[in-house]
């Protein structure tokens, strides 16, 4: 069986606020850790039937980039949901909401 490891390193300041976030993967062409400003991780716990989540961002993440990050996250969640379930009608509704979100947040598409 093939295995891959994803590693996320969070460097905290004296107040435990994320200052730097680095990620790397054994399955990536890039072999060094790459800096990012934010990440969301969601895991499904089959035993307890609930979602475990971590959402972190660096203290210098610009608000306009955070808005775009959430917009793109919602879009890609729709893509994943469509691939997993084939539920096109609800994904179209999510796309409509994403367009509304982008408009309200003044995100240029």
Q: What does this 3D model show about the protein?
A:
With 109 residues, this protein is an alpha+beta fold. It contains two helices and five strands. Strand 4 (38-45) and strand 5 (50-57) form a beta hairpin. Helix 1 (63-85) runs antiparallel to helix 2 (88-104). The longest helix has 23 residues, at 63-85. The chain is globular.
Described by strand count, sense and barrel closure, the largest sheet is: 3 strands, antiparallel
Low-confidence stretches: none
Secondary-structure element string? EEEEEHH
N- to C-terminal distance: 40 Å
Structural class: alpha+beta
What is the approximate shape?
Answer: globular
List the total number of helices. 2
Count of beta strands: 5
The averaged pLDDT comes out at 97
Rg: 17 Å
User: Which sequence of strands runs across the widest sheet?
Assistant: 1-2-3
What fraction, in percent, of the residue positions are helical? 25-40%
Q: Strands, helices and their partners?
A:
Elements: E1 6-12, E2 18-25, E3 34-36, E4 38-45, E5 50-57, H1 63-85, H2 88-104
Antiparallel strand pairs: 1-2, 2-3, 4-5
Helix pairs in contact: 1-2
Task: Describe the structure using short key phrases.
two-stranded antiparallel sheet, 109 residues, 3-stranded antiparallel beta sheet, alpha+beta, 37% helix
Brief write-up:
The protein is α+β, with helices and mostly antiparallel strands and 109 residues long. Helices cover 37% and strands 31% of the residues.
């Amino acid at each position: 069986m093939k295995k891959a490891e994803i590693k996320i390193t969070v460097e905290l300041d004296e107040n435990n606020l994320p200052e730097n976030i680095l990620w790397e993967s054994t399955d990536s062409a890039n072999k060094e850790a790459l800096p990012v400003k934010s990440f969301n991780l969601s895991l499904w716990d089959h035993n307890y039937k609930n979602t475990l989540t971590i959402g972190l961002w660096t203290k210098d993440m610009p608000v306009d980039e955070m808005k775009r990050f959430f917009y793109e996250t919602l879009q890609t969640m729709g893509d994943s949901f469509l691939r997993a379930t084939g539920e096109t009608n609800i994904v179209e509704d999510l796309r409509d909401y994403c367009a509304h979100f982008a408009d309200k947040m003044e995100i240029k598409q």
